[in-house]
Amino acid sequence: MKVIADEFIPGRSGKWLSFSYFFRMSVPERRAEFIFGTAAEVMAMMEGLPSKVAILRPGGEPQSVPTPPESDEMAAAYEAGRRLARGSANQAE
Length: 93
What we know:
This protein is mainly α. The chain contains 4 helices and 2 strands, in the order ββαααα. It has helices at 19-22, 27-34, 39-47, 73-92, and strands at residues 8-10, 16-18. The termini are far apart.
């Protein structure tokens, strides 16, 4: 057995998707399932999560052509946040 760490994001459907698949989706698909307009929407989705985790596991290659990273503001913001968090952790040491 081999344990591989991964990060997941919950969607409107209550299912979770790995970030590696999230960034392979087209921007419109991501926004439709994974971008919430208000904190209240997030809370409502979280209240309805089932006790057994459901993970979206796309089969094969993604159906959509991925957005190039230079024009993908969500991927850029995510990476900027990760760099900032790593910098903060390094400064704390």
